[in-house]
Fold each of these.
Amino acid sequence: MLDFGFDKLALIGAVALIVIGPERLPKVARTAGHLMGKARRYVADVKAEVNRSMELEELKKMKGQFEDAARDVEQSVQQEVNAATQAFDQTWQSIGGEGSSYEPLPPSYRHPGKKWRVKRGAMPLWYKQQQGVRRHVQSGAARVARFRPPTRY
């Protein structure tokens, strides 16, 4: 890169002042600064685009590696399942599983035998009141009226 020191910049400024003149020098300096800013932004955009494309290529490589690893794992799992199935079939054949007439019975319904009414009825009233268990059936309107604050006029 070009390296400009203070002395070189002062020399360039003095020559520009003589050649361009003091009236147009500020406008030319602003234009030159504006063009330099555009050039820097363009270079930064190009660098960012190159970095993004490099990262995209790296991600594609990682994706391919991940897919290969997943395929390998799937194949190994499938091989293990097939081996286990064959071993099970061989064992089943040696036991005589094909000709056996074993069929499990369908499950029958059995009542759980919970006595929740008895349990709720055995609870003392003072405990129900302390825990906030409702002892009487009450309509929704009655419950709202019960807890509505009194109106003051």
Amino acid sequence: MARLLLIEDDLTIRTPLIRALRERGHAVAAASTAMAGLRDALEDRPDLVVLDLGLPDLDGRELLRMLRAVSSVPVIVATARDDETEIVRVLDAGADDYVVKPFTAAQLDARARAVLRRGPGGADAREAALVVGGLRVDPRARQVTLDGVAVELTPREFDLLHHLAGRPGQVVTKRELLTEVWQIPYGGADKTVDVHLSWLRRKLGENAQQPRYLHTVRGVGVRLEAPAAQP
């Protein structure tokens, strides 16, 4: 199941499209303006964005440029504009695909699956469970277990742990975490990372003074590794 964000202001298109995509197994959220769509894309981190260009508050091409400045989320532009020059401009601006209205939900579904398959960390890699020592992170179910016991995490805590678990033994900088997990530029927000790491440590039954999995590298970032890897 992919998590899709549909940014479309026309209710007569948005409502049936949401229903049809959900019937095809996707989790679908929607926004009717560019700024609401940008906020949802950064906060909820969907697997793919379906973007209309004719939005009421901002042209979709400008929103695409804003998204590309802070996120690599795949984007399919879905619009009535069928001019070849416009299509080329949008693809050059960072869109992964372009579909012209009117289109069917089946066509959009097929294009979405194709974009997700060929993108970095395609479906198989993205949904594989990550195991580090006794820690198991399952992105498909968005569940974490520690030594077989379920660990209840908030969505952001899960995303943070999943990112770290995908890089075991590596030092991950706060800059990378803010960019990849929070989808925001680095600068003055590193306390956000510190607070979430503190919450995550508590739920994993450790602390910064006596780490088991999460090891702070002062002035650089954090490293996640299995306790058995420690001397």
